[in-house]
Amino acid sequence: MSMNDPITDALTKIRNAESVSKKECFLKPASKFLGELLKVIKENKYIEEYVMEEDKGIISYKVKLNGRINTCKGIKPRYAVKKSDFEKYEKRYLPARDVGLLIVSTPQGIMTHTSAKEKNLGGRLIAFIY
Length: 130
Description:
There is one protein chain. By secondary structure, this protein is of the alpha+beta class. It has helices spanning 6-19, 32-43, 86-93, 113-118, and strands spanning 24-27, 47-55, 58-65, 72-74, 80-81, 101-106, 109-112, 123-129. It is built from four helices and eight strands. The strands form two sheets. Strands 4, 5, 6, 7 and 8 form a five-stranded antiparallel β-sheet that branches. A hairpin with a 2-residue loop joins strand 2 (47-55) and strand 3 (58-65). The longest helix has 14 residues, at 6-19.
């Protein structure tokens, strides 16, 4: 595990747990940012549920998996994307048109690339999932 990118580490843990058909996994270390990322993933039905647990000020997440994730990875470097450039990255990271999500950090928070396009926002690419 590379301790310098907790987001990529968390997505790797989720992907590995999914690949061996586990029902849940624990993400630690965790952050509010990771919580926002999990919220977007849950809203798009890639995970069943997630619960934040705090112990002595240390945050961790318990994620309930539903077997819908084929792969999910962090994107490095975190490319800055204009709203007009999403298509280029969709072609690069997603397997087919309308399959999967790019997750983007925008001035209005973390959201999918489709929401960002609807709201005419650019941002930084965080991850992809399908």
